[in-house]
Structures
1.
Amino acid sequence: MKSIIRQYMDYISIERGLAYNTLQSYQSDLLFFEEFCRNKGYDPMGDSARSAVMAYLISLKREGMASTTSSRRLAAIKSFYKYCLGEGITDRDPTENIESGKRSLKLPGVLSVSEVDVLLNQPRRDTPAGLRDKAMLEVIYACGIRVSELTGLNVGDVNIEQKYIRCLGKGAKERIVPMGRVAANSVQEYLSGARGRLTRGKATPALFINRLGSRLTRQGFWKIIKNYARRGGIRKDITPHTLRHSFATHMLENGADLRSLQELLGHADITTTQIYTHLTKSRLKEVYRQSHPRA
């Protein structure tokens, strides 16, 4: 099975153009399944394939694995067997009619508008690093981009005059995202002198630079945002993705339609975007309970 998994990985990498992290997840999920079959004596490419899948799913449930994780593993297995059927490696799909359990809805954490204001006003603007941090925070909230998209930005990807950025999302899909006036001004201020001091004479296309003069990493930004949240007295557990979630929620609360938000966030499937409608509904209920005299 391992050799067929390698063939499958080559296929989804070339034909479907999936992001590196997604490819790694697919591969690890399939190797977990292969190891289970080997240890339990199942032939995943033979007559016992369906029994193997069922036994594997039962084992995941007994281990107490989160429904989201087991659903993702089943999705990888189903995709693998669909490939095998299409390539004539197997004559039937052992996962046919096998559905994952109902996935629990996990609402992402968000900040209120006032909390966002506090966070974005934490960086000092009298140092190169402070100007960089101010620009980064403003851009990720103004555009709702992923942290990998933020750190992957090059200088040429930002149009200050027209107020938009060009970024590469999952699967190397390019999209153009509008950038607000405040974010554009912050980037302009950063580019005017701070970035040149941070590069230390190194030639690099990267927009956001670390203290060594190289492209800032996702881990580096994670430390930065944690520090500013602590400094601002924000007690919520904040990650770089929190500002993306906050962007989406605030857009919906102020009248944005779901399709437009899907385009801005770079979601391939609108069902991914729909989680924010649940989030805004939960906040509406909270407002109702606090405001209605008979709530």
Note: The first strand starts at residue 158 and ends at 159.
2.
Amino acid sequence: MYLALGILASLVLLFLTGIAYQHFASLRDRRIHTAEGSLINIRRGCNLYFFEAGEGQPTVVFESGIGATHLSWRSIQDEISTLTRTVSYDRAGLGWSSPTRAPRTPGALARELHQMFDAAGIEPPYVLVGHSFGGLVVRRFALLYPREVAGIVLVDPMRPEEWPPLNPARQAQLDLGKRLIRYTIPVARCGLARIVVKVLLGRCGSSTDRTARSAVALPHHLLRRIRTEARKLPCKVWPALAAHWSRAGFYDGLRNHIVSIPSAVREMHDAEPIRGIPVAVLTPGNADPLTRDQLHRIGDSTRQTLALNSEHWIHLDEPELVINAIRTAIGAPVAPAAGYNHPATTFLAASPLPDGDIIVSARRF
């Protein structure tokens, strides 16, 4: 009896110690990792965190994927900021921005982004760069504020027709994601997620698959992102990335985004094409190219690039393709691929599709 009570008391003490550890470590993370950016109030109780670099016009704005923060753009933003003004930010509910229960639909997010521009004095014109779910946000922004947008770059944008309710086959994937997040939130609140992520990303280059397989406190999908996405990011952002993935608020915000996917899909499936604004679409080699009809549904001046050596995170796999697409959008000379640490050269070759559209394919030799 006394032994059982002692074990229970020890477990309770350990749990409370973990909560206290997580609380104070989160406060420290916020103090350290928000120093280089700014928080801007867009409405009562909602602050957005953004990172600004460079000078000039147009302003290049980076919109991240559904569970990513401004950190995923750091290498590309560093490069483009030598040419013009750049802005990356965290959507409300993610990163260092305020939590929110508001629906994370493209229209709502585009309006919040516009409010951030107004509050921070970031003037148009904008070149909008969106990855995955962020592609829906920048498309909606261009439809709401077309006179403020000079160009768009879509990096493997989310395709509404592939997700529920238009494609019920993926509903199980969304349901699984929500269940995993419910499990992860308490793990993060008691500090276990922080310990695991700290082990995985504690020192640049030290993360191993064996370590990741042994980290049972986090679900497989997050461990896979740590092994793939994080390793492609600059080492200097790893501590901040680990801080995000250690917070219960991150998983709560991600769940809110996932819950909003059906509404986002319905909204953008019925959206009008973008007119009069050049749109560059980058499609990875492991995905089917967008058809002529899909390209025209995006906009009336849309050009597609096939990143044959990339998966979903093209800006991490072949950043030179994204950089050159942005350079074209802002009117800067396209940089040679030799300027990057790649084993071979990339060049662009245009090839007509059977239906008459032009796809620009990237081939590496």
Note: DSSP finds 14 helices and ten strands in the chain.
3.
Amino acid sequence: MKKRIALVLYYNKYNKYSFNALIGALEQDKLVDVLEVFFIAKRYELIDRLGEIISTHDQVVLAISFFTTQLWEINEFIKLIRQRFANKILIIAGGPHPTGDPKGTLKMGVDVVVLGEGEETFIELMQKINNGEPFLNIKGIGILKDDKEYLFTGKRIKIDLNKYAPFPVIYRKKGPIEITRGCPHACSFCQTSHIFGTLPRHRNIESIIKYVKMMKEEGLGHIRFVTPNAFSYGSLDGKTLNLRKLEELLSKVKNIIPPEGKIFLGSFPSEVRPEHVNEETIGLLLKYASNDNIVIGAQSGSQKILDRCNRAHTIEDIRSAVTLTVKSGLKAYVDFIFGLPGEDKEDIKQTIYLMEHLAKIGAKIHTHSFIPLPTTAFAMNPVHRIDKELLKAINILTAKGKSFGTWEAQEKIAKKVSRYLRTNELV
């Protein structure tokens, strides 16, 4: 006897945290009783298994979440699926790229795009699929009508994080706990504010503690948080600190996890803004957290470029943040983006100087190349090869063990992304 609905997730390392939130939300709906969810990480394994899944289920839904840098891989993936299974599978796509480029995503062969936050939209979608009903009254989706005209059904109200689990409980997929969503800064190169809004929303401490206890019961004592800015927890505007609330969170988590448990804050998969690194925030890390490093978003050594990017911090903020971090005994990993729009020789010179200065006082430089992303202020800006003097400086820092990163691979994909955003052609 066939089962009702199969929900197949392309659950790879780049999107599993997004799917954790999505399935965590879906579990709270009675629909989960008629679903069978498949978490498949490898592309070719997924394609191989789809035939069997189709034969044992009335309806098969494939969910894909991806970044713009994955566009070509995902395009080929969808082509293979359509060639082998035609329209026997309903493909739903969400995440940063589909949100920023819904029309292009649909033209790749996707049936429905979920724009922005997916929890409530996805629940409604799966309900409609289960009931055999049309989707047009669901807010937050994009589709191509029969005449191939694009239709967006309208924005949804932002969700309350406390309403949903941060990861699947029934399916036992634990991971970092998302504690804050939304960023007030809307940096010109970043999609976060466009996807989640500029008003921060925090998961309350009671909710966080609930899931920390669940993890402890399963023998998981290492707690990581997902947040656009680790020190902004509890802040009403995301700009001013709420140290009382941040310490309350850390102290309560610390009291729950086992003695060998660890809290990681301000390190992967999150970072901190340089103006929020001070003696008080560093003190909280040293008192409660176990990470030996923090990731500081600097991005440029030119104040002109920082202002153009809408970063809302100064070069001196960066210097101070790194100095305090290193002095405290923590490692400072400092993000820089090369090739930001508007850079001239003087801006590059200032960036080289700052990187060398920070490396000299003990920081490690995390190197990135500018990649234009849909919906951002810099989406249509051209990309350029890295400056020769900057390349020389990076090579010297890398040889000394003072820098790391994949800027070269990013530079290559940036050219393809830029061409796509300008032409809407995948080549």
Note: The chain has a mean pLDDT of 95.
